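User: Structure please.
Assistant: Input sequence and predicted structure:
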Amino acid sequence: MFVFTITILSYLAIYICFTKYPEMKHFDVDLHVHSRFSIGTSPKMDLPRMCETAHLKGIQVLGTGDCLHSAWLEELESSLEKRGDCYEIDGIAFVIQTEIETTVKGRVHHVILFPSFSSAHELREVVLNNGYSQLTGGRPQLRISPEKLTSLVRDVDALAGPSHAFTPWTSMYAAYDSIRECYGENADLVTFLELGLSADTEMASKLAELDSCTFVSFSDAHSAAPDKLGREFTRFCLRRPSFREIGRAFQGINGRGVVLNVGLDPREGKYHLTGCHRCKKAYDLEDITVDGNVLKTCPECGGPLKIGVKDRIRLLALKSGEVPSARRPPYRHTVPLLEILKAMKRSKAMKRSKAMNVKKSYGELIREFHNEINILIDAPLGDVRQQHPELADVLERFRKDAIDFEFVGRGGWYGKIKI
């Protein structure tokens, strides 16, 4: 029934988008990435490789990442071509974007989207002139509150929303119990929220306070590898790929909007369950709650415990009371094609796949089906089954939400799918 409902909602969104507003098109979008100037990011994270991977994946619109870093901003300005109200290079559209960390209460990450380079320069000047940060890193830390940040962002005509909003590190719901507590009087300016790898639409919709907020799925990629860039993306209905159109889509103006979120099953995210980072043991929240306080160390090994996203949302939903159902576009669970091929290769049940050269098979599939998103989401299974019956069986299970897991993510460890 769940999969049937998702299918009906998908077709309904497509019908509304293209019959009432025939000038609209679908664009697959990933607006949260980083450059090689961010900590822990591949030194190969540059525009040519980002564009190459975007073509492999079928991503048509990318965020630039790290646009407040002077060296990267200079590189972006010299490389991207302004066409109308959007920026392009090598057939890929770009939105000027960065991630900012505020540090007044906890460490909270925010995705910032800019209409232009001049807007990014304006915010740079404000930050530098007021001593909020020296902007030496790709992801800058600002000594201001989220509420103050959204004021600064609004003043330069940009947009802000919480990054990976539910993770137990560097997120809105790690530091605050509500979006209004986080952004204060500017909460109404926040029109989008990034779900992150450990949450999906069904989970986040349990919080009534988010009913008016558009959910997006982006990769937070630190590498241009095909299993990182575009591993999560959002399908928008827009007239053209630009900041203005995406801003209108967040508000659902005149047929623009999100028609599909695509990302990992939350069980694959590193913080889905409550668990220990050292021994990987998962816990029910009740078992590690003593006198109303959740233990911070593992009873088994003494390692650090982190409350999982599943439990955090449950606690917040209980606090907010009865939750009305919000009408949302469907969320499709999948994993990068490379990860599927690797899982097939190590599966004892698929003996023919044991001899598979994963990289070679990936290239052949892309040449046959044009891009990865087409293979994972859009191509008829019958077309895939003609030449790749084992892969078609796996894709069918993903499309029916019938994938099992060898290990469910917890405590900072990714989950592992079972083929």
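The first helix runs from residue 2 to 19.
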